[in-house]
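Re: [ENG-882] Designed sequences occasionally contain unexpected residues at chain ends

Forwarding the minimal case from QA. Structure tokens:
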């Protein structure tokens, strides 16, 4: 019986690519002004016709950017660039033949980081170390554009801090004393085929 179920189980696998609009909660720059790319692979399987589950491995650029205002006579530049390898695990519910809502959690490992101003990369004495691990619960929406292509929109917010607040005004409040990734992502998923 187990062997028959394993053979009958359907797995979809493919490629994904898109972009992030991100900000960092806990810095002084509000708004999703930091663009970034994301790319990777995914695998997905149906549990029942209306419910599915999946996993991904992807590279994802996050961070923060100060919005430059043209009327500012001497605009200060600030860019935080963070690159992660993310492994999201999720479950989805099909609301009809073409749309689904999803929810899950994504574990990330920081592979590179940097902070920049108008003079370039921050000097060592001004750098504040980032944590290597990130954990982001997320919710999203998927829409089948074609039989092999779907569009995925997600909102994710870290629950583990990416680092402590670099300022000296520490508080006893977890969300006020740390910085967190806040990301909206939009990606296309291309199904390469089905393995049975």
């Amino acid at each position: 019986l187990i062997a028959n179920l394993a053979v009958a189980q359907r797995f979809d696998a493919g490629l994904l690519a898109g972009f992030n609009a991100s900000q960092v909660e806990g810095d002084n720059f509000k708004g999703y002004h930091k663009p970034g790319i994301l790319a990777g692979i995914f695998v997905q399987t149906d549990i029942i016709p209306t419910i599915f589950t999946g996993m991904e491995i992807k590279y994802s650029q996050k961070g923060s950017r100060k919005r430059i205002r043209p009327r500012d006579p001497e605009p200060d530049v600030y860019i935080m660039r963070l690159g992660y390898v993310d492994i999201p695990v999720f479950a989805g519910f099909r609301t009809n033949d073409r749309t689904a809502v999803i929810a899950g959690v994504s574990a990330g490992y920081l592979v590179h980081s940097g902070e920049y101003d108008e003079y370039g990369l921050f000097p060592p004495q001004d750098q504040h170390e980032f944590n290597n691990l990130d954990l982001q619960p997320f919710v999203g929406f998927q829409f089948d554009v074609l039989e092999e292509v779907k569009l995925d929109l997600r909102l994710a917010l870290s629950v583990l801090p990416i680092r402590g607040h670099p300022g000296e005004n520490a508080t006893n409040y977890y969300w006020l004393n740390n910085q967190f990734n806040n990301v909206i992502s939009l990606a296309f998923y291309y199904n390469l085929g089905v393995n049975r």
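QA comment: On inspection the terminal residues look reasonable. Helices lie at 2-8. Proposing we downgrade this to a documentation issue.
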